[in-house]
Design a protein that fits this description.
95 residues, mainly alpha, 5 helices
């Protein structure tokens, strides 16, 4: 990462910044939707969490570390919980 950061061009910095802002906007939308208990927020969270699992699994296979395995298992637990508990996002009991 340090080598990448040192060799980054101004255009690369702009792309990285825009990517970071886009990701932050997506996470903010997810957070607000979860707070408001929107039905689609559950699927958004399942998709976002599941999308990182292949990378996590690759990293575990490449260089096994206990923390990597724990993070992977935590993400699996979150996805399973969200998948099996749709009533958590029932809009009828919103505050």
């Amino acid at each position: 990462m340090l080598r990448f950061a040192v060799r980054t061009t101004p255009r690369g910095e702009v792309v990285a910044a825009l990517t970071a802002f886009g990701y932050a906007a997506l996470m903010a939308a997810e957070g607000v939707a979860l707070y408001l208990r929107r039905a689609w927020a559950r699927w958004f969270t399942i998709g976002a969490t599941s999308s990182l699992m292949p990378i996590e699994l690759y990293e575990i296979l490449r260089a096994p570390r206990i923390l990597r395995v724990l993070v992977f298992l935590l993400n699996v637990a979150v996805v399973v919980y969200l998948w099996r508990r749709p009533e958590v996002f029932d809009e009828s009991d919103r505050v």
